[in-house]
Amino acid sequence: MRLALNLGYWGAGNGMDNLVLAQDADRLGFDSCWVAEAYGSDAPTILSWVGAQTTRIGLGSAVLQIPARSPAMTAMTAATLDSLSGGRFRLGLGVSGPQVSEGWHGVRFDSPLGRTREYVDIVRMALRRETVQYAGRHFTLPLPDGPGKALRLTVRPARGGQVPIYLAAVGPKNLELTGEIADGWLAIFFSPEHSGDLLASLRAGAERGGRGTPQDPLAGFDIVPNVPVVLTDDLDYAYAAVSSYAALYIGGMGSREKNFYNQLACRMGFEKEAALVQDLYLDGRARDAAAAVPREFLDATSLLGSAERIRHRLAAYAEAGVTTLAISPYATTLDARRATLRTMAKAIQDAGLG
Predict the structure, then answer these.
(1) pLDDT tens string 13-30
(2) Residue 238: which H helix or E strand, with range?
(3) Within 10 Å of residue 82's Cβ, how many Cβ atoms?
(4) Each residue of 142-178: pLDDT tens digit?
(5) CA 181 to CA 337: how far, in whole Å?
(6) 344 and 242 in a common domain
(7) d(Cα 155, Cα 270) in Å, to the nearest integer?
(8) In the chain, how many domains are there?
(9) Which range marks the domain in which residue 271 is found?
């Protein structure tokens, strides 16, 4: 099981701190470093900055938002980052959600599965430097009723057309699509104890797509959960540190009728608790919503506590099929976050998982 670093969103004064963490992860032998975007900092700019000041660590987008860019623009960005970094880029994609897609990008949040399938088709076609001609339900290139010309990407990715593509997926159908067409899965709120149905959906999609081997359709497929880490002897502090993050997603990332993260918590068996968190959050009571997130949920989806407690927990992730564990270090100081990276690197090694 490889170790990765998730830097999340850039901004709020944490920019230079995150660069230091990325450089530490590079020296410590972390496999990859991932950067997010929503409606603030964009991922490609940050990845280029980090990539220019590191040497070997992989650079991943977690994620580039599908409604924010045309597939051709995403292919251009992926090819450029892969070329500049010497083949270190991993392309993570996601449809975002209806609030961001329609409110920020002005793109209707409809047919996310079909749109994602076509989007990935076009990105791969472009990265292979084929002349891009595509007639789909959601994308048509070139437009048939104008002067548009079918074009070919002029930039050569360092790995040719083999830039790995990851999808952020939560629901069963999206997971099946991920297993079918992607090289990896970017997971959120991943719990080893609740992962059976999620992996079954991935496996079903991989089988349909003829991926892996007959014995193991997920062979070679990268399963990458983003896992908050709070290194402390005070469990009360640890739960409080991650509860606001969980409440934001379960309660506020979407409408009352359409919140994929809330639905995920329900499928994990936290139906009543998820409903309460959402009610409180949407009523403007974010602190109460955070306090209402069950500790069982936080323990299941985060790594909390002492180094020994975390080390014992790591085996469950490996046994569940995780191939790359992407950690988000939670601490109040840069020194403490750097210490978390060193502790995690040693814990993986001591557990015999690296």
Answers:
(1) 668 899 999 999 999 999
(2) helix 235-247
(3) 26
(4) 999 999 999 999 998 998 889 999 999 999 999 999 9
(5) 35
(6) no
(7) 48
(8) 2
(9) 235-305
